[in-house]
Structures are given as C-alpha cells and as structure tokens.
C-alpha cells in the first residue's frame, strides 16, 4: 500500500502527524534529510540557551557554590530519574554519568560481584563492539577468573549454562535494528541463574522499554542518540533496586556515602549513587537534560507508531531499488521485530552513503556493507522518507557511487 | 617584610605584575575574591562563545560529520598534546578524556599489567580520597591478587618493598599544599622495581611540572582546577611512551586500533589512543581546551613566581590573626615546598569559611578543620590577598562564625 502511496497521501500523513510540532524544537538545516539520529541526535533548539546559562550564570557567577546552589551534585540522579520514565525504571534506579563503555564495565563487574562462583560473561557475536571489548578487558584483568564468551545471536538462550554469571545483550541491534524480547530473555537468564545487563543505546527514546516489567537486573545506554544529548553526552546506568548492594569496582569519590567528609576508606553510598565514580560532567549533563526533557514531552506510544510507519514507508518505497540495484533488506520486515531504523546491505554501501551526502541526505554506513537509515520520529517527516528514496534512486541511476573520491575510506564515517 | 607592607606597596606590586592582564580574560564578579580556583577554576571569557560555536555550528549544522569535519574524534589527543606542554610530556603521551577517578583506574591497572608478579598498590594515607578509593576497588575485584596499601606520608620511600607494583602519589597535597619531589621519589620507586603514577590535580597549571625530566611512568590530573576547564571537565592521562604497550582494562571502542571497522575483538590502538575508552565528551573537551589554551599563553615560571609571592604575602598578613585567633599554618612555610595554596587549621574552619562567603570571599573548607586558600596567579591580585585578610579579621573580631546558620554542615562545601 505505502509503496505506491501518492505524494498527496504523504502530505496528508505529515499534516495529520501528532508529533509534527516537535520538528520545530530542533535545529535542522533547510534541505537536509538527517537519517543518522541513531548515531548522533539532532540539536534541540533549547540546548544553546541552557548551556549559555550553565556557563555564564552557574559557572561564571556561582562558581564553586553551584555544586549545591545550582544542584550540579545531584544532576546525575535527577537526570537519571527522568530517563527512568522513558525505560520503565523507578526513581532512584538510574544515574547519568560517564560513557556507555565505562557504565558497561560498572554493570558487568557489579553483576560478577553478585555471582562470584560463575566465570562467564556471555554476549552475542555481532553485538556493538564496545560491549564485547569491555568484556574482553575484564577477562584480561581477571587472571583467568572471568571468561568473555560470545555465541551466534540465535544461540544465546542455549548458551545459558550454569557457568554464566551475566548475559550482556543489546535490546535493538545497532546494525539490523532487530528488537530482542526483553522479558523472555531476561526470564531465560534468571532461570539459568544468571543476571542480565541490557544495552539500551538504540532503544531508549526509540521504542517503549519496560525494564522493571521485564525484571531486568542492570542496563546501560547512550545519551547522544535518540535522547539528543549532544556529541559524547554522558551515558546512564540502571541497577534494579534489589542490586543496590552490589560492589562497584570503579569506586570513586562521587559514589562514596559521604564524599565531602574525605574519609580514608571507601564506603559506598546507599542506592544508585554508588554507581557514580568521578566528579559529574556538568556541561554534558546539562545538554543531556534538555534532550531528555524534550523526549519526555512526547507520547512514547505515538513515537513508536510513527517510527514503524516511517520504516514501513521506507521499505515499501525501497522495493523497486532492491529489485533494480541490488539492495537487500537487512532489518526485520515484520515491524514488531524492528527498532527505529532500517538497514540495507549493498556491496557499495560506503560509497552510496557518501554519494547521498552530496544530495544532502545523511545516512550511516556500518562496515562491511550496511547502509543504515535511522528513524527519529520527533524530527523526521513522511515526506523526508519519500524524498530520501528519490535521491537514492538518482544516486543509483547515475551510478554516482563510482566516483573515485568515494573509494577512499575515511577513518570515521 | 610583606607582613607590614603598606597599601601603596601592594598597589605597586599589582601595577608591576606581568600576569595582571590575564585577569580580564576571566569572568569574575565585581567585589568577589575567589580563593577556590584549586577546586573549580574561574570561567574564561572565551568559553561561552566557543561552546556556542560547538553547539550551534559543529553539532547543529555539522551533525555527525563533525566527528571528522570539526575534529571531534581527535580532540582528546589534540588537547592532550597541549596539556603535555604544561607538564613536561611529549606529544602523543597524554590523552584528555573521562574523569580523574576513571583515569586513575586506567593508570593503575596498566601499571599492574607491567608488574604482574607484584601485588601491592602503595599510596599515602591522607591522599585525596578518590585515589585511595580507586585502589580499594581494584583490590576488591582482584580476588586477593592485588593489595591496596597506604602508609604515613613520611614512610612512603621506606615502604617501597619488592612487593610494590605501583606507587600512586599526588604531587601537591590537596589539603596542605605540600609539594613532593617528583624526580627523587620516582627514582626511589624505580630503584625498588616499582612504577609510579603521579596525580597532578593540584600541580598542573599551578607549578612547573616535568614528567619526563623525572622519568615518570604514568600521571593523571584534573581539568577543572588550575586548567579552568569547567565543572566536571574531562580529566587527562599521561603514559610515558615506553609504556604504550600496557594493556588497558577499560578497553572501549575509542581505544581500538580501528574503531570504525567494528571488529569483533579488541585490538588496542598504538600509542596513547589506547587509553581512551568510550566516545569522547565533546562539549566538556571544548571548554577544557579554552582553559588550556589560556594557560599556555602564560609563562609558567612567572606563574610560579607570583604564586609564591601571593602565598608569602598571605602568610605574612595572617600572622597577627594566628596569634590572636588561633589559626595554625597547615602548609609549608618554606615556599619551595608549597604548591599554589595556603591552608590553615582552625577548629571553626567550616564556620569561618561560611562567614567569609557573606563578605564575598570564597575560600574552601576541607574536613575536619582546614581552611584552604587557593592561589590562582592568572586572576588573583596582591590586593585581593590583603583584602581577604582584612575581611577575615572582621569575621574574627565579631566572632561571626558563631552565627547559628553556620553550624549546620551542608552536604557539599
């Protein structure tokens, strides 16, 4: 149906879109179609003013007194409580700080401290690399006590032996966009006596997430994708209240029960605060909070509905290009199994992504051959999807990907 | 001499101060005397505009392309190279990222990986707490393989047994301001077969530091004190070039040799890049770079000379208050042994710091009884020191510290 949708129908979809007003809350250059919000979310218009206030008033005028006076010291927990509303967590179960990678380390080592007799950290091959790299670092340091194991994505449940201390899985796969069944897999992990750490980097703010509904143990996620927190934004960590007695290995002073008493020995704070480590990154947190606040204004059910409709429209419109130019859908066609992105495999994926940029479409390439279209319902229009496929067809029709300048791979894409 | 210095002499000191023009490069509220730049440095005037540019142009307009186009991905190394010039390191030996605490973890575990047969991480009791807390977290995780040991400050060299893998010391003590002899202690550590990690949080930007001159192994430091990088600014890590083969435990994707090839296994980058972990905190790094650039404009020998003169003036002026009101100098009187701060012990230290704030002097309190005056030569005047002591005398003469509101300790001071 959507594949043959007339232009007029797309216009009416945009006109009837209840999320349409959100687009004006973002800075988006005229003419640009940005399909990479799942790598770096767009800039909320409110962010610049908020940062100017934090810099000029809170830092410039308030100086050191702003740790209390401007609530800098509690920002990680305050923003954590806001993120909690997006992912089905309770207040006091999430803290926003550090990078996703560092939070993976904290969550995994906390889980290991609760399953000391079990050696294995399990994940899937093809998981986002930093997840597996962090596992490998823990293994290297453990002196043989911990083993980092990856298995094929479909073999995860079968691999849940009584050796497995903790399973680390990403809810929405960074390349394919496939959604894992959080409740079912968490149940399987628990039945095997293991704990689970969910990576929400591609799900929080993109699909409804219910951590406590699924009885999840730990979770971590990224602040700069669907939460629009800015480049390298602080990440976040969820620990279910029942695990707040776990031992943090990154036992820095901001996780201490009384950091400003400057005691000699580490005594972890009660609750989620112990999962902090160093001094909170105030500027990054301020930008993240603007993005999270904006996301909280949207109805997540509406976000999901529009995300799926955008994806369905893209897949339908792409069908003729698949037939003519060899694109192969690399995401689930059944939209219930799909996050907020659609990926295609194409041998010239990298070159096509480059050629699209010259036509002012930013999509993403993920090695070796994946062209990834991120769908951000707060600032994408149905007409953007139609226009994207039209521009892509121009690239294909002229074989623009053959231009020599596209055949030199850059270090960062 | 300086104790009885006439007001006119102080005016001429300020008039002849070659660093005086730097004061205008900072935002400082009229009337405020800020003696806490060793806790949070003041705001450089250039920071707001630079952040507006990063947010509006680089993020808002450039979006994902700014990782290359605006050199976000290399910012940790570029800024590291700049910090290197302040602390006697070579280009390619410092990376700016993560918090001080997280970098302590990286440096200590890297050192342990180079001394696998030795179990002890040694430090001094009374070190800044997060240093020792991070040691204790490593011990807790190691399953008995690593021991975190602290000894009295004067017993450090004697404690360098053949059990010690790595010694973690702060060059300038956060309370007393006492300066450690970096070259002598590094030599003693090496003679004992141990490695050393120097914490430069209170020395970089405050006193001349020569890491390679001292043959230091690793160092870490804070971005938001004398470097004026803003609240919770990214910290930095130094690893001497000879240690770039050490294994990072926080093995995140930004430390990988080819992060954007998304390989399955961790393969650490050559050089200092492997000491990165997650995605760089771009906004925090941008603010840090403004502070570092400003510091690089100053002649560090001149900074040191003025810092000592400010401290000597303060100590001289404080002498009558010591006699009359019971302040006890808690920093070395010999200024060669003193960093860029002067501390006094007083039973009412906390209350006095609070009372001073009502007279628009911000000094710092450190439990249990230390009143700490941070000396930042780029934006403090000699007249500020004289005025501080006059205001403090008013506090003492009226026993303003007895006000009931000062007797309730806040969580963060």
Automatic annotation (TrEMBL), chains A, B:
Requisite cofactors: pyridoxal 5'-phosphate
Matches recorded under Pfam families: KYNU_C
Pathway: Cofactor biosynthesis; NAD(+) biosynthesis; quinolinate from L-kynurenine: step 2/3; Amino-acid degradation; L-kynurenine degradation; L-alanine and anthranilate from L-kynurenine: step 1/1
Enzyme category, top tier: hydrolase
InterPro entries to which the protein is assigned, alphabetical: Kynureninase, PyrdxlP-dep_Trfase, PyrdxlP-dep_Trfase_major, PyrdxlP-dep_Trfase_small
Biological processes, Gene Ontology terms: anthranilate metabolic process; L-kynurenine catabolic process; L-tryptophan catabolic process to kynurenine; NAD+ biosynthetic process; quinolinate biosynthetic process
Stated name of the protein: Kynureninase
Organism: Sphingopyxis alaskensis (strain DSM 13593 / LMG 18877 / RB2256) (Sphingomonas alaskensis)
Lineage of origin: Bacteria, Pseudomonadati, Pseudomonadota, Alphaproteobacteria, Sphingomonadales
């Amino acid at each position: 149906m959507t594949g043959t949708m007339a232009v007029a129908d797309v216009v009416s979809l945009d006109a009837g879109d209840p999320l349409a007003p959100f687009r004006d809350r973002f800075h988006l250059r005229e003419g640009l179609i940005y399909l990479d919000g799942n790598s770096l979310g767009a800039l909320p218009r409110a962010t610049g003013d908020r940062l100017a206030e934090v810099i000029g008033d809170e830092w410039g005028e308030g100086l050191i007194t702003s740790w209390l006076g401007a609530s800098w010291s509690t920002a990680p927990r305050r923003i954590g409580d806001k993120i909690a509303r997006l992912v089905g967590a309770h207040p006091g179960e999430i803290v926003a700080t550090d990078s996703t990678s560092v939070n993976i380390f904290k969550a995994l080592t906390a889980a290991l401290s609760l399953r000391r007799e079990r050696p294995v950290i399990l994940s899937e091959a093809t998981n986002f690399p930093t997840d597996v790299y962090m596992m490998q670092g823990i293994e290297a340091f453990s002196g043989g006590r911990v083993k980092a194991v990856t298995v094929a994505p479909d073999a995860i449940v079968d691999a849940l032996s009584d050796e497995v201390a903790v399973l680390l899985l990403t809810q929405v796969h960074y390349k394919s966009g496939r959604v894992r069944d959080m409740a079912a897999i968490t149940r399987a992990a628990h039945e095997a006596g293991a704990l689970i750490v969910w990576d929400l980097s591609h799900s929080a703010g993109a699909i409804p997430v219910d951590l406590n509904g699924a009885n999840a143990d730990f979770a971590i996620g990224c602040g700069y994708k669907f939460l629009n927190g800015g480049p390298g934004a602080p990440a976040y960590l969820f620990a279910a209240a029942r695990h707040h007695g776990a031992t943090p290995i990154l036992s820095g002073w901001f996780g201490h029960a009384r950091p400003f008493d400057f005691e000699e020995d580490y005594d972890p704070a009660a609750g989620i605060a112990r999962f902090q480590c160093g001094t909170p990154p105030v500027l990054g947190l301020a930008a993240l909070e603007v993005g999270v606040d904006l996301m909280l204004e949207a109805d997540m059910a509406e976000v999901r509905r529009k995300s799926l409709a955008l994806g369905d429209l893209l897949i339908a419109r792409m069908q003729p290009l698949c037939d003519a130019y060899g694109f192969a859908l690399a995401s689930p066609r059944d939209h219930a199994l799909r996050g907020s992105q659609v990926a295609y495999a194409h041998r010239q994926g990298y070159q096509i992504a480059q050629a699209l940029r010259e036509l002012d479409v930013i999509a993403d390439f993920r090695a070796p051959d994946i062209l990834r279209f991120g769908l951000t319902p707060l600032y994408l229009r149905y007409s953007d999807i139609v226009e994207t496929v039209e521009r892509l067809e121009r690239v294909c029709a002229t074989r623009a990907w053959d231009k020599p300048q596209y055949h030199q791979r850059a270090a960062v894409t």
